[in-house]
Structure formats: C-alpha cells, structure tokens
Amino acid sequence: MTPRTKKLTQAEMPDADYAFYGLVWAGTTLTERVDRALTKAHDLPVSWFEVMLWLAASPEPVPASVLGNSTMLSRSQVSRVVDALQGRGLVTRTPSPRDARSVEVSLTPEGHRLFAEADATRREVLGPVFTDLLEPQDIAALAAVWRKLKAAKGAHPAP
C-alpha cells in the first residue's frame, strides 16, 4: 500500500515562516518565469534586464559603483553584465565628470528601445501570475515591505 502524501497548508505554519516561504517562492518562481521569457524573446537574461531597469529609471548616467550598490548583483557581476551590454551596443561607458577614477553607464538609444520591448514582455509574463492578481494597495504594501527590508540591510550584516 502506498503511503498517502499530505501537503502542509499555510494554516499549519506560523505567519512569519509562511511569509518567508512566500518571499522565497515568489522570488524564485517569478524570476525564473521572467528570465525564460526575456531570454527567449530578447536574448536578454534577467540579470542584464535588472541593470537596464536601473539605468532606464535614471535620467542621468549612473556611476558603475552605484549600479553595484543598487542591484542584487555583485560588483564583478555588474561589470561583466555592463561589458556584455556594451558589446551589444545597449549601453555606453563614459568617464565620470565628478570622479576621474570612475565611469558612468547609460543606455544607448538601442538600449532604450530593447529595454522598452523587454519591459513589456516582463509585464506581460508577470500580469497573470502577479500584478493582475493583486490590488494596487497590495502592490504598495509589498513595495513598502521591500523598502523596509532593503533599508535595514546595512544595519544587520550577514553572519
């Protein structure tokens, strides 16, 4: 006789544990979905898109060190991504007018065009499994939670 399998429910887990599980599940599941769609449609891995997202949100060129501090990528990963994006003609690097040791990164016109297409793909993929399921106040609440967690990041270094 085969043992009957049971799936634990949220009700059996403390809220803090389920919140953590949900964060891990959502991050993994949604990132994989977006990565597959962006790679298939635009030959653009999600890590490249993340860098482009920050660049597109900035009206000015962004110092490379700021990209390293803003993204979830390490500084060396940011450098490799910027190299790859530059190789595809999607970003430019220019010497910083404020710091001779630093470079600033910005999207090229082609980078802006591809970002707009990729962002539409991302929104299309996330709609049915994320944004369309949530009310505007849910999205605002999640954004507030992420801001709080990110703001506290430096106060509690990793063990």
From TrEMBL:
<protein>
    <submittedName>
        <fullName>MarR family transcriptional regulator</fullName>
    </submittedName>
</protein>
<dbReference type="InterPro" id="IPR036388">
    <property type="entry name" value="WH-like_DNA-bd_sf"/>
</dbReference>
<dbReference type="InterPro" id="IPR039422">
    <property type="entry name" value="MarR/SlyA-like"/>
</dbReference>
<dbReference type="InterPro" id="IPR036390">
    <property type="entry name" value="WH_DNA-bd_sf"/>
</dbReference>
<dbReference type="InterPro" id="IPR000835">
    <property type="entry name" value="HTH_MarR-typ"/>
</dbReference>
<feature type="domain" description="HTH marR-type">
    <location>
        <begin position="16"/>
        <end position="151"/>
    </location>
</feature>
<dbReference type="Pfam" id="PF12802">
    <property type="entry name" value="MarR_2"/>
</dbReference>
